[in-house]
Amino acid sequence: MPPPSIDDLLRDRFGLPGFRPRQREAIAALLAGRDVLITMPTGSGKSLCYQLPALAVDGLLLVVSPLIALMKDQTDALRANGMAARCVHSAMPSAERTDALEAARRGELDLLFVTPERFRSPAFDALLPELRVAAMAVDEAHCISQWGHDFRPDYYRLGEYRRRVGDPPTIALTATATPKVADDIVTALRLRDPLVIRTGIERPNLFLAATPVVDTEEKTDLIADRIRAIDGPGIVYSALIKDLEILHGELQRRGIESLVYHGKLSPEERRRMQEDFMTSTRRVVLATNAFGMGVDKADIRFVIHFQIPKTLEAWTQEVGRAGRDDAPSHCELLYMQDDVAIQQNFVGWANPSREYLLMVYGVLHGWGERIGTKEVEDVRQELLIKNRGDNRVGICLRWLEVLGVTEGSFETHDIRIARELSPSELPEFVGSPGKHKDDLQALLAMVRFGTDHESCRRVLLARHFGLEEPAFEGTDGCGACDVCVDPVRWRQGRFAPRPARGSDEDDEPANVEREGVPFQRGDWVRVDRRHLGQVVRVEGAGRRVRLIIESAGDLRRREIDPRRRRVEKIDRGGPGGAG
Are 194 and 210 members of one domain? Predict the structure, then answer.
């Protein structure tokens, strides 16, 4: 009996009636043994281009993915669809990792998901010769260019890792890639005469805007206005954690509840925030760029950038998380000139010089056997680094680990010098002035996008990504950007305003009148005649209503039970109107 065709697999295993544009071409090329580089908009079906071939190849399809959450979500979805898929990552129990790898060795899996760092595991490296890797996929392949030099050096080495599994036919997938990034991907992965498919990044349901603002207060007011005007889940991105926390408080003062997600939260707190957002129909999350890549939520109605991101590629990736259900969604950059300096600092802190890397190595080497008693902060102190945002030490430590100069880590207190480092073995681009200049040029492209109020946003994106400029009919241009049409008219015609009750159907309503306790957010109250404060949150239900009061005198927040404490509502005008 002949094997099923790709059309049979599409219909019978994925339940789809037909392929989307260019999917068939990409799948056929990979199954014919050809390398493929594919750029498709978010939500256009990139994952199918390696998931379906996994059912047709004779052997394992190895998928390299950047985030654990992303791998886990995809693995769970595939297993629910009857496919033999497993993932291996550092957060799994050791026994579970071993079980997954043994299943791969026995040939029982269609797909195995790993992070690029997994290739440095001695156990995984020893297993590679026994795996029958028939094809390889690199998801979020733009990370090779964006992270391969800085935060995730193992991305840069994926070409070497590919050789170690027998140079199988490889498909690289991304939603955004300039011609330069595409060249980086081809070079780093050592793709041979790849089929290059670029379907563009067009998402006609996304409204694109860049709004100039003069100060943080204006930005906060605009964000509050957008949240009130758009009923549905949304993400507000900020570059700095402290600004997220300030914004959270300012929105609370305006009666708007929000989640906050950033890297300083514990893993449990981040998991809870993500789950709250994923299961809600109205939640708003304030987040750094750590949030989103592993989030597959179809009904995100807006993505707003409180501060300018470092590249137009990053902005495009982040706004691409909106409107995956093809319904209208609002994407807006709030551009303030002072915010550019934040990203300029980040660029500097992401580009340690070669001399700096050698200084870090010198500090570690000089400690000798004492290195096991040290912390990362000790390295920073030795090099007189004062700013916590300066990431140069972290980047240098990752490069020393990838190069095999160090083993272990400061976190596990088992770091040691494994071998001597010769300056001549450093990759040419590490610490090169050219990379620093390229990063600044990428930031400049983002600035130009934010300050151009004459060119259609979609035309600007097409030019940046080296794509054919879109042609529009009629006088409204693309019909969905702040240059071509009036943003207020566009929003009003597509969104219902958010109900006054709050940011989620499970939140306490903004107006609470229960059991004789007619309080709402924003009310000024006096508690036991002793202190004056503002209600910033109303919690509970039935007879168990609690008020969170921010005292006017010391700005401390107190939880008050109106059943046990005398609470008097006073003039809404605030302290000045209280008499």
Answer: no
Flag whether 506 is in a domain.
Answer: no
Give the chain's length.
579
Number of domains in the chain: 4
Q: Report residue 350 as tokens.
A: 């992401």
Mark which of 401, 430, 459 sits at the end of a domain.
430
Q: Is residue 435 part of a domain?
A: no
**Terminal CA-to-CA distance of the chain, rounded, Å?**
90
**Mean pLDDT for the chain overall:** 86
Q: Is residue 504 part of a domain?
A: no
The CA-atom distances, in angstroms, between 502 and each of 250, 287, 329, 332, 549 are 14, 19, 20, 22, 18
User: Is 51 in contact with 15 (CB distance < 8 Å)?
Assistant: no
Distances (CA, A) of 536 to 157, 273, 425, 524, 555: 51, 20, 58, 10, 11
Dist CA 265 CA 245 (whole Å): 12
Do 37 and 179 lie in one domain? The reply is yes
3-state secondary structure of 459: helix
Whether residues 127 and 264 fall in one domain: no
Q: 């499970």: which residue's tokens?
A: 506
Token pair in block for residue 539: 């919690």
pTM: 0.77
Whether 266 and 174 share a structural domain? no
**416-417 vs 406-407, strand pairing mode:** antiparallel
pLDDT at 327 over 80: yes
Residue 443 per-residue DSSP state: H
Provide the 3-class DSSP secondary structure of residue 208.
Answer: strand
- Contact call for residues 485 and 476 (beta carbons, < 8 A): yes
- Compute φ and ψ for 499, nearest 5 degrees: -60, 150
**561 touches 530 (CB < 8 A):** no
Identify the bridge partners of residue 64 per DSSP, sorted by sequence position.
114, 138
Q: Are residue 74 and residue 164 in the same domain, yes or no?
A: yes
What SS3 state is found at 412?
coil
Examine the domain organization and report whether 409 and 470 are in the same domain: no
**Residues 528, 411 share a domain:** no
Q: How does pLDDT run across 68-118, given as a tens digit for each residue?
A: 777 888 898 899 889 999 999 888 888 999 999 999 999 999 999 999 989
Confidence of residue 374 (pLDDT cuts 50, 70, 90): very high
Please report whether residue 502 resides in a domain: no
180 and 52 within one domain: yes
Range of the domain at 369: 352-430
Identify the CA nearest to 220 among candidates 191, 180, 190, 254.
Answer: 254
Q: Quick check: 330 and 284 in contact, CB under 8 A?
A: no
